[in-house]
Design goal:
Layout: H1 2-34, E1 37-43, H2 62-70, E2 72-74, E3 77-78, H3 84-93, H4 118-122, E4 128-134, E5 153-157, E6 170-173, E7 176-179, H5 193-207, E8 213-217, H6 233-238, H7 245-270, E9 277-283, H8 322-325, E10 329-332, E11 341-343, E12 347-348, H9 352-360, H10 374-378, H11 380-383, E13 393-397, E14 400-405, E15 408-412, E16 420-423, H12 439-452, H13 465-473
Helix pairs in contact: 5-7
């Protein structure tokens, strides 16, 4: 009888332990499921005035327009930098370019091994983390590869030169090569790489419908070689336009990307998760004034020129004037973001990480420069606090420096050049230099710039062999020559 009671007691204890473990597990699953999802779509090179919601008469973007109508549009959303790799580093780490490890645009400069990213702060909370597109923050063989910085999965291009071709022999999947059938580099091939990248992004979202996820979609279109299959429905809309063929291809690539934005939104609705998913869409840096001519000095599609008023942003990509930093930014979250809002909040890429951290209950790193914009997204009542404001915003790139304090902006356009000062509230085109008349303001912004800059410490490579192989893959694996179609640009 004693042994029977002992066995019964043990069975009861085991049952209780299993039940408790089950309740804890269920509670953990429910808590994880209650956390919001994040989808961030970043269009490489899309200009502020190029989407049709801005009145652009050339390019059709009905799904991006729908995001603007159903969410919030930011008029003063600014890039982290003026070119591809540094701006992505600011986005991922929450730091401005005076503190980041990637400040040049060589293509594969690495993050340091210990640096945290949006993905690495979300992953310990049970988030699935996936990236699809152009990385630019560490080539293969370096400390900066995405799988070492919180990403469960990254499919696309690690190196930016590799990313210029839509027909490379392979893409990269967690540092392994993913072959693309029939491709020979440049514009020669049968498998359009962006279709593969987009399909994998959709697969990731579908696979993680029952758990919180971060889907980072730094898509390559419309940057790089201006290629889109003639069979794509978007090409039919532009093939007969009276523009140079690259300008037609560019417009078709934007409309293709717009179609895919619509497909992402439709998938979230199909899966029943759109009301717990914050979707953001933006460019990555200022417009490049593509396809300029004497008749159209700001380019065929005029990404830096307001099509309604004719007001222009000064500069373009690679400069720290507004033309290099102002980007289109939208956010949509049914039931949380009031539709149709237009926000003038001044913010930039370093603010994304702390915003995501606040929503997910993650701990943001102590060394970031961004602030959360959650109250601006969902309202101060829902957020439980007022929206904070930046004391200043800071940028540096290859000898250029810029500081923003409210509407005041100071810029040193090249190393050792005189500083300039502009009041963007009355001079959006940065034409009236007030450095001489407002030395008090300029001095204050120069002090901010001095405090913001630290010496750069980049990540490292154990070997650059695979990185160089990926760069050559743009040309089909052969070293580039002067006759190669599509010069080996760094950005």
């Amino acid at each position: 009888m004693h042994s029977f009671r002992l066995a019964l007691r043990r069975a009861q204890l085991v049952r209780f332990a299993l039940l408790t473990a089950g309740l804890v597990l269920a509670g953990t699953v429910r808590a994880a499921a209650a956390k919001p999802n994040f989808v961030y779509i970043m269009a490489d090179e899309l200009g502020y005035f190029e989407p049709s919601y801005m009145g652009n008469p050339n390019i059709r973007t009905p799904n991006i327009d729908r995001m603007a109508a159903e969410g919030i549009r930011f008029t003063q959303g600014l890039a982290g930098s003026t070119v591809c790799a540094p701006t992505r580093c600011c986005f991922l780490t929450g730091k401005h370019s005076g503190h980041t490890s990637v400040r040049l645009n060589g293509g594969g400069t690495p993050l340091r091994a210990e640096e945290q990213t949006i993905a690495s702060i979300l992953k310990p909370l049970g988030y699935a983390t996936g990236g699809f597109g152009k990385w630019g923050n560490g080539g293969r063989g370096s400390t900066g590869v995405p799988e070492r910085h919180g990403f469960d999965l990254f499919i696309g291009y690690y190196d930016q030169v590799h990313a210029h071709s839509y027909y490379p022999p392979y893409l990269i999947r967690n540092s392994e090569e993913l072959p693309l059938a029939g491709n020979h580099g440049n514009s020669d091939g049968k498998t359009y790489s962006h279709y593969v990248i987009f399909a994998e992004a959709m697969k990731f979202i579908r696979a993680n419908r029952d758990r919180p996820f971060f889907a980072y979609l730094p898509f390559t279109p419309p940057h790089g070689n201006f290629d889109i299959p003639d069979t794509d429905a978007a090409w039919a809309l532009y093939k007969d336009k009276p523009w140079p063929e690259p300008a037609r291809r560019y417009a078709a690539m934007v409309t293709m990307l717009d179609r895919q934005v619509g497909e992402v939104l439709a998938l979230l609705k199909e899966l029943g998760i759109e009301e717990r998913t914050l979707v953001m869409f933006s460019g990555d840096n200022g417009a490049n004034d593509y396809f300029a001519s004497p008749e159209q000095p700001r380019g065929v599609h005029s990404g830096n020129k307001n099509p309604k008023t004719g007001v222009e942003f000064r500069g373009r990509k690679t400069t720290l004037y507004e033309g290099g930093l102002r980007i289109p930014v939208l956010a949509r979250w049914p039931g949380r973001i009031v539709p149709g809002r237009v926000s003038d909040l001044l913010w930039y890429f370093p603010d994304v990480l702390p915003t995501v951290a606040e929503l997910a209950g993650a701990r943001a790193p102590a060394d970031i420069d961004g602030i959360s914009i959650l109250p601006e997204l969902i309202g101060e009542t829902a957020a439980g606090r007022k929206q904070g404001q930046h004391e200043y915003l800071y940028w540096e790139f290859t000898g250029q420096t810029a500081v923003r304090m409210g509407a005041w902006k100071a810029i040193q356009p090249k190393a050792n050049a005189p500083w300039e000062l502009y009041d963007l509230a009355s001079d959006l085109s940065e034409t009236k230099d007030l450095a001489q008349s407002r030395p008090d303001i300029l001095s204050r912004l120069q002090e901010y710039a001095k405090a913001a800059h630290t010496l750069v410490v980049e990540g490292t490579f154990s070997s650059t062999d695979l990185h160089e192989r990926d760069r050559a893959a743009k040309f089909g694996g052969k070293p580039p020559t002067s006759n190669a179609k599509g010069k080996a640009k760094k950005d």
